[in-house]
Amino acid sequence: MESREPMDYSSSGVDIDAEGKAVSSLINALSESPRKSGQIGAPVHLPGGFGGIVEFGDSRLALATDGVGSKLQLANEIERWEGVGIDCVAMNVNDLLCVGAEPIAFVDYIAVPETNPNVHAKLGSSLSEACKRARITLAGGETATLPGIVNELDLSGTALGWFPKGEAITGENLEPGDILIGLPSSGIHSNGYTLVRAVLERSGVSLRDVVPFNSEHKNRIIERFPESGKDILLGEVLLNPTRIYVDPIIDLIISCRENRGPCRISELKAIAHITGGGLSNLLRLHDSFGWDISNPLPIPPEFNWIAEIGKIDNKEMHRTFNMGMGMVLAVSPDYAEKVVNWIDERLPGTKIVGSVNNDGQKVTHIDSSVIFEHY
After folding, report:
1. Cα 255 to chain center, whole Å?
2. Which of 65, 76, 292, 297 is at 20 to 30 A from 274, Cα to Cα?
3. With contact defined as beta carbons under 8 Å apart, do 317 and 323 qualify?
């Protein structure tokens, strides 16, 4: 019989704190760019770390790189790759949005143990659909066949974006009292799947089985596998593609820059992509202010199922997963209602979820057990 001990991300194989230390070690070992300020390609420092920025004349270019991660192992298990290209593009372009950059192009990297035209065709179709949703050009890519190095399909990519010089969204102008607006996720997105896979193994349920809970959730659609029957499968829920937020976020940013939106661009203070690390991502936006989630978005049912089967506490769930909120905007209080109404017309379920405070650099929550003091 499977152990019924409480599960967490670390015990399933991923230690977020250890990853953070490893990344810091990598960054500290890097040398300075040979391109200096004023040159095309010179680095531009922005807080938050959601994208790398370089100079480009009167513009700034932003780059983000990421992969689908171990969600691919579930897709590989049941040979369903219809959504993984969307996941890959989403994880990259959503990061670009956090610095106010409009995504414009994407390149992919596919690594396989052996070539399979059928698999590549499905990946191509998925990437094409992703680029339509993100309104970007698929500018190229690389496919590597690496027997002995990779054991199954892996997919990653890099997105390129831009914004006018001086118009980055950084969080540096945040003030206590600014309002937090939450945008709903489409489900688990592409983080925490090492823990998801461990929970799935404990459950004894197959990805091909009918979902063992009521999967209905307001303001999201489960994208069905081709030729699926009437009943929704667990695999369809767990592999539901990551939501791409280019529409409506870029439309909001552009309209505000052009003074025809719900507020001036200066009133959009910060944007956070809620990925690995969950709500602790908010701490990347400012080095002293706090963030209080007093009115969280509804939690999709798959998260409750994961928590129940894995006996995972609420703090661990909110550190590992997005828990139904994929993006957060910080907006001046005088314009928050206008902004939330503008977004909600385009992405129903968007609402005010909390505020910025001066109670120290930490994230607090309506559930007092959910508190984060470091990313």
Report:
1. 23
2. 76
3. yes
Residue-wise pLDDT for 152-181, tens only, equals: 999 999 999 999 999 999 999 999 999 999
What is the distance between the alpha carbons of residues 94 and 273, in angstroms, rounded to a whole number?
7
**List of the chain residues with pLDDT < 50:** 1-2, 26-27
Q: According to the model, what pLDDT value does residue 24 have?
A: 57
User: Is pTM, for the whole model, over 0.85?
Assistant: yes
State the CATH class of domain 179-365.
alpha beta
Q: Determine contact, residues 123/167, Cβ cutoff 8 Å.
A: no
Give the residue range(s) of CATH 3.90.650.10 domains in the chain. Answer: 179-365
In this predicted structure, what is the pLDDT of residue 36?
77
Question: CATH 3.30.1330.10 in the chain, residues?
Answer: 42-164
Put residue 333 in one of left, alpha, beta given phi > 0 → left and psi -120 to 50 → alpha.
Answer: alpha
Which CATH code, of 3.40.50.1260, 2.160.10.10, 3.40.50.1000, 3.30.1330.10, is assigned to 42-164?
3.30.1330.10
| CA gap 295, 180 in Å, rounded | 10
Q: Counting every residue, how long is the chain?
A: 375
Give the Cβ contact number of residue 10 at 10 Å: 15
Using CA atoms, how far apart are residues 87 and 212, in angstroms rounded to an integer? 24
Report the alpha-carbon distance of residue 80 to residue 363 in Å, rounded.
37
Which 3-state string (H, E, C) describes 214-272?
CCCCCCCCCCCCCCCCCCCEHHHHHCCCCCCCHHHHHHHHHHHHCCCCCCCHHHEEEEE
- The Cα–Cα gap between 185 and 113 comes to 32
